[in-house]
What we know:
Chain A is an alpha+beta fold.
Amino acid sequence: MPLDRKIAYIDLTTGDIQTKPIPLDVRKKFLGGRGLDAYLLYNHTEKGCDPLGPKNTLMVSGGILTATCASATARTQIMANSPLTGLLGSANMGGFFAPEMAWAGFHHLVIKGKAKHPVYIYIHNGEIEIRDARDIWGKPVTDAQWAIRDDLGDQEVKSCVCGPAGENLVRFANVMTGIKNSGGRSGMGCVMGSKNLKGVAVRGTMDIKIARPTEALEYNKRFIDQIVSAKVNQTQGVLGTPFIWGATNSWGGIRCRNFQYNQCEYADDIEPERIDEICEETMGPYHMTGCFGCQVHCRAQYKIPEGPYAGVYDEGPEYTSQGAFGGETDTPRAITVLTGNHLVDKFGMDNLETGSLISWAMELYELGIITSKETDGLDLRFGNDDAVIEMIERICYRKGWLGDALADGGIAASEKIGKHSFDYLIQVKGMSNLHSDERATPALALNIATGSRGSDHLRSRPAIDLYHLPEEVLRKIYGNPVSYDGPLSSEHTEYIGKPWQVFWQENCYMGVDCLGICKYHTTFLGATLPNFEDWSKVIYYNTGLEMTPEEIWEVARRCNMIERLFNLREGLTRDDLKKGDMLNHRYFDEPCRRGAIDVVGKMIDKKKFIKMIDEFYEHKGLDQKGVPKPETLEVLGLENEPSHLV
Amino acid sequence: MAKTLYIDYQKCTGCRLCELVCAVFHDGISNPARSRIKVMKWESEGLYIPMSCQQCQDAPCMNVCPVKAISRDEELGRIVVDYDVCIGCRACVAACPFGAMNFNAKDKQVFKCDLCDGDPQCVRFCEVKAIEYLEVDDMSIYKKRDAATRISVAGKEAVALQAAM
């Protein structure tokens, strides 16, 4: 069977390295990628371990399909106990790292300990080496990667690294690869930094066997045709993800001035078409780029057109950068978004968290909760472009009182600031929400409240809920691969049936994360895109492993449950505003002030919202406290965790 | 008339799907080291250039081969290696000015683009058409059209500029 991939256990304290094959029964239970990482995290970390201490374990992995002949198997998964939230830390990124790691002989790394001085790990055709990185420490994200190539004398090496933000233990530092690809949530780069680990470099020319090459190739072609036939992906391929920001902003689903408004006005300069114009002017007509094996090519290339960074090349900006440095801070200027985007890429920190925290600080400043004393004289009013750019650098290098405070994340900063500052912080489980506003969309509100890594759209967002699909279409999507005959509603402002949609999406996204493919290749933004049934075939053709769609669904449920178990072990309680499945009071108290007719005036009905959570727990097999029922664990085969199978 | 690969590197998004499908089609294995085509990258400039065999008319690999294992297949317009004759000396690898002749250390064989016997998989899978399979004598027509479009656009812009002044 072609599934002969390995896990490497690397102890940075002792330098001990061990490699093991991944047993088939473990594969069948957790598939790979994020799912298997969650199992490893639960088994290889102790309860309450210090996220910044040597006992925290950092997982770096590819999915079961990584480097096979499936489409877009580019994602690298990174997992650890999060230094931002103290709960599950999990991030994933595109690029070319995970496939190269697979060709170098490994699908999973389990990294423990702390090196005595800065090091990087080099993996080459089955060999693993820990190398000195003292000369590379301090370098920005891309410079560090090029320095590793020079050190190894091989320009084909791919690496994932932390930037200065990770080294400075900014709690939301990224792990990054290439120019732009960011494992960007919950501070995985900070864990790297805490271990004195600058990065992991890989280079491989080992074979990945394909079980049925002809079928795999032909199915990949079919899969790609389906992917690129979706209008949403065609638009992504031209305008990149900024088109999503443009569409949702015009409708009123974007946070502006932290949480005061749900639409950013006078935003012509950061509309997707304007961004595209700049990309075309600076990079020519063909300025889109893609991750490994992906035909969506959703990332633009640009050079900063003016200002102190004029002429600097970068990629993006993602819609998250538009939201973070344009909308939330009410600085809708292309130059600010493009420069901000470049700085977070260079420093290696999460654009979502950074923009959210800056806009939160701006609101506090305007309310007088913080003053020019805390900002060291910086005029931190909304709309001040220079202040946004300045704050990014201050956070990365922990400059000034506020820069240092924000670098520790929102909750820690709110405890330092005091004076009800926490009430204004838009976060769940200690992680800031992205730039979107969910007050008019209960399904999306439920998604961010219950996400396993905190407030996030990529864990369970039923984005297609906004399309008003006819109920029979919804039934077709949400009634497979397990049947569902409860209520469903095409109306996005409704509360009916949404818990099932969120539950279904949670399993769908866990599925893609176990496979190692991108969410743009499944039921995320496009209702016609492949999921469980197609995956069953892709897995079989590529690896020879026979899994029914129902079995893949079970795996996804199991892996989500392991993440839940981890969070519960680390202190998640249902209604805890800092560590639970609960939203900031503003979602329930402040109506939307702008937007289309179906948005303006909307806020979340708390009673109905709590009922949604009850129902969501029911679908997941949790009791009303959010703890798995014994029979659920038994059905999922998790009654004996931690079971230490690998 | 024979067809050949026409690579417009400006359109390349750098995804390397061509490398993947090339290896799987020929060897049934995923491994870019087995691919006949390779995307060379300058990531810090966003520049990606797919490199493959040019199927040269006066092919250095063919000329340098000491045992005459390399010949020209006129029907498909390609240079082919006869593995029954090849001694694996790698003189062709050294001679190719494009780096398009490769050597596989596992199978101990040289290998190169064979145009997939007339249905190149890199072309089939490249949605952005950075690689096309075109009649050899048509290739310059496409380049002429591109160049002419640029001249025409520049001309119109010059007229508009004059009118504005």
